[in-house]
Amino acid sequence: MTTRPTAKDLRHMLAWVVGLVCVLALLATPAQGLTTDRTTAAPNQDGGRNVIGGEPTRITWVGTVEEGEEVTGITLLFPAGCELSDDSYVKVQEMDMSDPQHPLHNERSATIDLTAARLIVELDEPIPAGNLLYVEIYKFCLPPVSGQVIITGTYTDASGASHDLTPSPPIDTIALTSTQRLINDLSEQEWVKAWNSVKFLNIFVNPLWIVASIPSLFFGWLRSLGLVLLGFPLAIPVGLGISFLRMSRFRLLRFVSSIYVNIIRGTPLFLQIYIAFFGLPLLGIKPNDYLLGVLVLAMNSSAYLAEIFRAGIQSIHKGQFEAASSLGMNGVQTMFFVIIPQTVRRVIPTMTSEFILLFKDTSLLAAVGVMEQMMFAKTLVNTAGNMTPYVIAACYYLIVTLPLTRIISVFEKRLAASEGREAPPGDKDKMTKRVGLFKTIAPLSATDSEPLDATTPERHSSA
Amino acid sequence: MTTDRITGTKTSASTGLRAVVRIEGLRKSFGSLEVLKGVDLEVDRGEVVVILGPSGSGKSTLLRCVNLLEKPTAGTIYFEDSCITDSKVNINHIREKVGMVFQSFNLFPHLSARANVALAPRKVLKRSHEEADRIAIEQLEKVGLGDRVEYLPAQLSGGQQQRVAIARALAMDPHVMLFDEATSALDPELVRGVLDVMRSLAEAGMTMIVVTHEMGFAREVADRVIFMDDGIIVEQGSPTEVFDAPQHERTKDFLGHIS
């Protein structure tokens, strides 16, 4: 059987080729006197971790002076498209490694010549072997496109000879995002400056951080929603099962299920999260954080749902069970075709509020490092030093909770109508109007379960 | 009790086919309150038995014991050939053949009239969807609700709801029908429609045990009237005997109060 090379095979092959080329390159390159250790650019995206090209950033170049060498100067070459900003400057430092346990940072004086194309540093004193050379270029703009930037250059040794540097590892850049452009534009606006000059507005509703938070927190919001959308449906069948156990005719089952319900409802979810997240690893179980978060939420909610279902089922009038029995239906048939359909309609409003509670409670998972809305907001607040991301996070929660609260009342009205508690026109005196279903779970009498208008039999005995 | 049951089984076979329900020495207590204090009753096929009595006399409890909605404290009940108080009997099979109509209708509020009637034929008798619907519509037409099949219980008047409940019981093709104060929850003007349905059922030969306060119905339709008080059968006989010449003080008292 012949197989065509798959994408995986090709990738493997490519990896081998690249590896081989690297090895050859290493063999071919003469020993370096100054090795490039790392080259980085500081993230300059508000509310993100990317390096945006065309925006001022800080470039850090670090190299080690090898044995038997001294370095007196360095030239870094930047690719085309780089730009200086108005206040670009350079800092040169030496890391003294003579005591490797306690490296010393020394500022080094040097003659510096910086343009958009290159940086020439001539050190006043050479840097001895074994020490590290730090070059930091502040407020420097990389090319304004998405791509990779590689910095090359040369160094000068004590003899005055010039040698090539090993090219830096690539720095990933992204093009200026529309969000960032908006933030930049906004920050120039007079009204924004005026707005932010008011301390309260600046701290809680800073326009720049509003713009930065909205796209960034969107993903946190999706994750929080994911937690509850996975956890809640899981809690429903578990809760239903437990509610059956709670009503079981076997004492032991009732006992065990009531312990489960009482312990879970009687302790904070926060504590349950801690026990699960710190306890399981001690047992050698290390599940995925997100998955464990879903499970803890589902477990917690199942206990509440069990009580909601139990109360819902018990609110169904005894006459419904009797009518089903009198028709020869067995317990399971009665439950599935008569009782549960009625219960579902009655518990939907309460279930919806339980959903809202659980959605808000996903925020507790931030305490154990599950990436969700609260965690996203916290990270942003830490970099921003501003409360605005929390305010935006609050808005994201409200996007879910406010419409659901509205839906609950619609459900309630519809249910009231379907059970005949809203009198159909022309039949008003027959149907006793009942309101306040939200306490549904409290025994509620539907029209079918109780004489609506009990008249004394004597009054029409001659009929 | 065990011996009762054994001898009972033998005698039930010997009574022949006429008795549909036979009750012997039935007692029922709720806690310390004894509601039925030893009731014997036999209902023949095609017979309409009306049970009268003041409230609290135990007539509803007696009726509810016939399909074991209440579990007797003592005594035996036979339905056709089976001793239903025997714990080995599958009560659900008995209940298929014993229709019951409740004072409070107990329709399933989430189902249309048609679905209310069709549910048990489908789930219990395992009829097909179409077959069950056909039965349901036929029964609803019989009780005069052919134009209301898709209505929800909440959209129907009390009298209509009770007629749906009767259709629902009839859809199981029962051998006996129990009516537990079927008209007591209805407005006076709605009672007639329900009684008409019950009357035509009786005329069609249905075996019926009826607990009611409708004296006119009892006099006109009953084959036998039973007067109960304080957990026992005080007096029974044809409507004429009981209504026109009651033998016991308590019966006279009760009838005197009513009329």
Describe the structure.
The complex is a heterodimer of chains A (463) and B (259). Chain A is an alpha+beta fold. Chain A folds into two domains: 34-176, Immunoglobulin-like (Sandwich); 207-439, MetI-like fold. In chain A, 49% of the residues lie in helices and 18% in strands. In chain A, a hairpin with a 7-residue loop joins strand 4 and strand 5 (104-107). The longest helix of chain A is centred in the middle third of the chain and has 40 residues, at 207-246. The radius of gyration of chain A is 35 Å and the shape is elongated. In chain A, 31% of the residues are buried. Mean pLDDT of chain B is 89; it is low at 1-16. By secondary structure, chain B is an alpha/beta fold. In chain B, helix 4 (113-123) runs parallel beside helix 6 and helix 6 runs parallel beside helix 7. Chain B is 40% helix and 24% strand. Chains A and B meet through helix 9 and helix 10 of A and helix 3, strand 6, helix 4, helix 6 and helix 7 of B.
Task: Tell me the strand order in the biggest sheet of chain A.
Answer: 1-2-8-4-5
Which value, in Å, is the CA radius of gyration of chain B?
A: 18 Å
List the helices and strands of chain A in order.
Answer: HEEEEEEEEEEEEHHHHHHHHHHH
Structural class of chain A: alpha+beta
Count of discrete alpha- or pi-helical segments spanning 4 or more residues of chain B: 10
Which segments of chain B are poorly predicted (pLDDT under 50) over 5 or more consecutive residues? Answer: 1-16
Helix/strand-derived class of chain B?
alpha/beta
Task: Give the SSE string of chain B.
Answer: HEEEHEEHEHHHEHEHEEHH
The interface involving the most residues is between: A-B, 42 and 50 residues
Query: What share of the residues of chain A lie within helices?
Result: 40-55%
Please indicate the percent range of residues of chain A in DSSP E strands (runs of 2 or more): 15-25%
Mean pLDDT of chain A: 82
Helix content, binned percent of chain B: 40-55%
Q: Going by CATH, what is the homologous superfamily of the largest domain in chain A?
A: MetI-like
Using only C-alpha atoms, the radius of gyration of chain A works out to 35 Å
Number of domains of chain A: 2
